[in-house]
């Protein structure tokens, strides 16, 4: 498979274990504000638009996300790292917004 946007290079399909806990981060660089929340992997669909796709159950007030969507790319990490990310954000002067 190639990278969807460019059709160049190799792009592997990423599948995560069902039930895997993830931490999501949506950094807004222009305002130095980060939005973070936890999620649980429910499925690994395959659509042509992207090679790394997961259906995720959001842990927290998902309705807060309706006014927060800024981009189609988010940072996802295995495990629960909200506390550590919030701590790091404060240390570097970034505003933190969590859904939990």
Name the descriptors:
five-stranded mixed sheet, about 100 residues, globular
Task: Quickly describe the structure.
The chain has 100 residues and is mainly beta. Helix content is 10%, strand content 32%. The chain has one helix at residues 82-91; strands spanning 21-28, 33-43, 55-59, 75-78, 95-98.
Per DSSP, the total helix count is: 1
Indicate the mean pLDDT: 86
Low-confidence stretches: none
How many extended strands? 5
Strand content bin: 25-35%
Radius of gyration: 15 Å
Written as H for each helix and E for each strand, in order along the chain, the element string is: EEEEHE
- What is the total number of structural domains? 1
Distance between the termini: 37 Å
Class by SSE composition:
mainly beta
Please give the largest β-sheet. 5 strands, mixed
Helix content: 10-25%
Molecular shape:
globular
């Amino acid at each position: 498979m190639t990278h969807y946007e460019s059709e160049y290079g190799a792009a592997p399909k990423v599948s995560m274990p069902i039930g895997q806990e993830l931490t999501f981060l949506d950094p807004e660089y222009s305002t130095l504000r980060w939005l973070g929340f936890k999620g649980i992997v429910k499925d690994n669909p395959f659509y042509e638009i992207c090679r790394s796709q997961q259906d995720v159950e959001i842990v927290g007030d998902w309705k807060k996300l309706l006014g927060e969507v800024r981009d189609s790319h988010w940072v996802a990490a295995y495990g629960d790292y909200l506390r550590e990310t919030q701590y790091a954000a404060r240390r570097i002067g970034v505003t933190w917004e969590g859904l939990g």
